C-alpha cells in the first residue's frame, strides 16, 4: 500500500496558479507574484536534495523548512558530488550514457516527487539544471564535462517543459565564474532552452563562484531576470553590502540576492585546511562516524548562527530582495558513516534545527511586518562614524519615510539622523533577531539627531532598531 501511494504521489502533479507565478516588480527592485504581492525569498541551499535523499527523507526536510518560514529551496538536478556517476537513493542515474539528451525517466520521477511535495507546502524550488562542473571551467572536478551549446539548449528545453506548470525558479551556474565566450554561450543556450520549454513562465538567475556576482557577465542579458552573488565562506563579517551596493547601482535595475553566504557550521576558509592525504591525520580529526571531533584542526573556527544573522540583515538593509541560508551538513545532505565533501559537525537531520535555521523565521517575521519591498538602503540615517568592520551598522528607510530599520551587529548605542522620517511623533522599538520579540518601546518627539541604546551589547548580541512615524499607524509587536 505504501509503495502504491508513493507511486501515485510521484505521478500526481501539483500545478501552480497564475497568482503563484513570479515576476519582477515594476521598479526592478524585488520579486512579486502575478497579483502584485511582494515575494520574500528566504532560501536554503539543499544542493544534494535530489541526489542524496529518499522520498521520506526529502519530505521530512521540506516539512521542517516550511515550518521554519523558508520560501525557497535551492537544489541541483545534476548534482555536485559526482552526480552523473553516483546514483540517487533509488539507484538511478540522471542521464543515460552521460548524455544530456538522454534523461533517465526514473531519476526524474524522483525529482518530480520532491518538486510536488515542495509545492504542496507552499515552497518554490530554485532548480539548478546542473552544477557548473559539468560545463567547461577552470575547476572541472568532479565533472565530467558533458555540456556544449547544442545539448545545453535541449536539456534546458526538457526541464522547462517538464516543470512549466510548477513553482520553480531557474538558477544556472553552480559555484563557477564564466571563463570565456564559449562558456558564456553554453549558459545562454541553456537559459533560452529553459524559456522555450516553459514558455517564459519562470524567472532565471545565475549562481557564480565565491565573492562574485552574476551581474559581472550577464546583467544586460534579457534572459537574466535577477542577479545572484555568492559572498562565500572566507571570513567572519564578510562585507556582503559591497556586493549589494554594486548591484543596486546597475542599470537597468534588477533585483539581487546573496545566494550563498557563509554556511552555519562550516569551517572558515575550509579549503586551506582540507588535506586528507595522511590517514593518521584524518583519524585524529574525525570520529568513527565521520564527524569533526577535533575542531582545533580548523584554527579560524566555524561560522555560527550569529554570522548567519549578521549577513542576512546586512544584505536585506542593503537592498537585497531576499537571502539564502545554508548549513554545512544540510547542503551536502551528510549522513553519518558516509562520504563527505567538507567535514561536518552533525549529520543533516540534526542540522535542520540549528539556531541559524530557526532564526530565519524571525527574519521573515520582521520583513513582513515592515515590508522589505518598501525599503531603500540609506546609510545617511546613521550619524557619526560607522566603520566597515564587525561594528558596521546598516540602515534602510521606507520610500515614503514612514519607518526606518537599523541593524546593530554588536548592539550598543547608535545616533540616528531623524530628518528623513516622516511625522513629528515617533515610536522606536528594539527587535530581537534571536527570538522575534520586541524588547522595548519608546515614544518620542522627533529631533534632528537622537541616540538610542539597545537592551544588550557585545558579540552575538545583535539588535534591530525600528523607528515608526506614529501617524502611519504601523503594526507593532507585543512585548
From TrEMBL:
<dbReference type="Pfam" id="PF13204">
    <property type="entry name" value="Apiosidase"/>
</dbReference>
<keyword id="KW-0378">Hydrolase</keyword>
<feature type="domain" description="Putative collagen-binding">
    <location>
        <begin position="376"/>
        <end position="468"/>
    </location>
</feature>
<dbReference type="InterPro" id="IPR024749">
    <property type="entry name" value="Collagen-bd_put"/>
</dbReference>
<feature type="domain" description="Apiosidase-like catalytic">
    <location>
        <begin position="26"/>
        <end position="372"/>
    </location>
</feature>
<dbReference type="InterPro" id="IPR017853">
    <property type="entry name" value="GH"/>
</dbReference>
<dbReference type="InterPro" id="IPR025277">
    <property type="entry name" value="Apiosidase-like_cat_dom"/>
</dbReference>
<keyword id="KW-0732">Signal</keyword>
<feature type="signal peptide">
    <location>
        <begin position="1"/>
        <end position="18"/>
    </location>
</feature>
<protein>
    <submittedName>
        <fullName>Glycoside hydrolase family 140 protein</fullName>
    </submittedName>
</protein>
<dbReference type="Pfam" id="PF12904">
    <property type="entry name" value="Collagen_bind_2"/>
</dbReference>
<dbReference type="GO" id="GO:0016787">
    <property type="term" value="F:hydrolase activity"/>
</dbReference>
Amino acid at each position: 500500500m505504501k509503495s502504491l501511494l508513493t507511486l501515485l504521489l510521484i505521478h500526481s502533479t501539483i500545478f501552480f496558479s497564475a497568482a503563484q507565478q513570479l515576476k519582477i516588480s515594476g521598479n526592478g527592485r524585488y520579486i512579486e507574484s502575478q497579483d502584485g504581492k511582494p515575494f520574500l525569498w528566504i532560501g536554503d541551499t539543499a544542493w544534494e536534495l535530489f541526489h542524496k535523499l529518499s522520498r521520506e527523507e526529502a519530505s521530512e526536510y521540506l516539512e521542517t523548512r516550511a515550518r521554519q518560514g523558508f520560501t525557497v529551496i535551492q537544489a541541483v538536478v545534476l548534482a555536485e558530488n559526482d552526480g552523473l556517476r553516483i546514483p540517487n537513493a533509488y539507484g538511478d542515474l540522471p542521464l543515460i550514457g552521460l548524455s544530456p539528451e538522454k534523461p533517465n525517466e526514473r531519476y526524474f520521477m524522483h525529482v518530480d516527487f520532491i518538486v510536488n511535495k515542495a509545492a504542496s507546502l507552499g515552497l518554490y524550488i530554485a532548480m539548478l539544471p546542473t552544477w557548473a562542473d559539468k560545463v567547461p571551467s577552470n575547476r572541472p572536478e568532479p565533472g565530467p564535462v558533458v555540456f556544449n551549446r547544442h545539448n545545453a539548449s535541449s536539456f534546458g528545453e526538457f526541464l522547462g517543459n517538464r516543470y512549466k506548470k510548477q513553482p520553480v525558479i531557474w538558477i544556472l551556474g553552480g559555484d563557477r565564474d564564466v571563463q570565456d565566450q564559449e562558456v558564456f554561450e553554453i549558459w545562454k543556450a541553456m537559459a533560452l532552452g529553459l524559456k522555450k520549454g516553459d514558455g517564459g513562465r519562470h524567472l532565471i538567475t545565475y549562481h557564480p563562484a565565491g565573492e562574485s556576482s552574476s551581474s559581472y557577465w550577464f546583467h544586460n542579458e534579457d534572459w537574466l531576470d535577477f542577479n545572484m552573488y555568492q559572498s562565500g565562506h572566507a571570513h567572519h563579517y564578510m562585507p556582503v553590502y559591497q556586493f549589494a551596493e554594486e548591484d543596486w547601482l546597475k542599470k537597468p535595475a534588477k533585483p539581487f540576492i546573496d545566494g550563498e553566504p557563509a554556511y552555519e557550521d562550516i569551517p572558515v576558509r575550509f579549503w586551506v585546511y582540507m588535506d586528507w592525504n595522511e590517514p593518521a591525520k584524518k583519524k585524529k580529526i574525525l570520529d568513527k562516524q565521520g564527524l569533526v571531533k577535533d575542531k582545533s584542526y580548523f584554527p579560524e573556527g566555524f561560522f555560527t548562527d550569529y554570522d548567519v544573522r549578521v549577513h542576512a540583515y546586512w544584505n536585506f538593509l542593503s537592498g537585497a530582495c531576499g537571502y539564502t541560508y545554508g548549513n554545512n551538513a544540510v547542503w551536502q545532505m551528510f549522513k553519518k558513516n558516509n562520504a563527505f565533501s567538507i567535514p561536518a559537525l552533525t549529520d543533516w537531520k540534526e542540522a535542520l534545527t540549528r539556531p541559524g535555521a530557526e532564526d530565519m523565521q524571525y527574519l521573515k517575521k520582521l520583513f513582513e511586518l515592515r515590508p522589505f519591498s518598501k525599503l531603500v538602503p540609506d546609510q545617511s540615517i546613521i550619524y557619526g562614524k560607522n566603520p566597515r568592520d564587525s561594528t558596521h551598522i546598516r540602515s534602510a528607510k521606507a520610500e515614503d519615510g514612514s519607518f526606518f530599520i537599523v541593524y546593530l551587529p554588536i548592539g550598543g548605542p547608535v545616533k540616528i539622523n531623524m530628518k528623513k522620517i516622516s511625522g513629528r511623533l515617533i515610536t522606536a522599538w528594539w527587535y530581537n533577531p534571536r527570538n522575534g520579540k520586541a524588547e522595548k518601546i519608546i515614544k518620542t518627539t522627533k529631533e534632528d539627531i537622537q541616540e538610542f541604546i539597545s537592551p544588550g551589547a557585545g558579540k552575538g548580541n545583535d539588535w534591530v532598531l525600528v523607528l515608526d512615524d506614529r501617524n502611519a499607524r504601523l503594526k507593532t509587536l507585543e512585548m
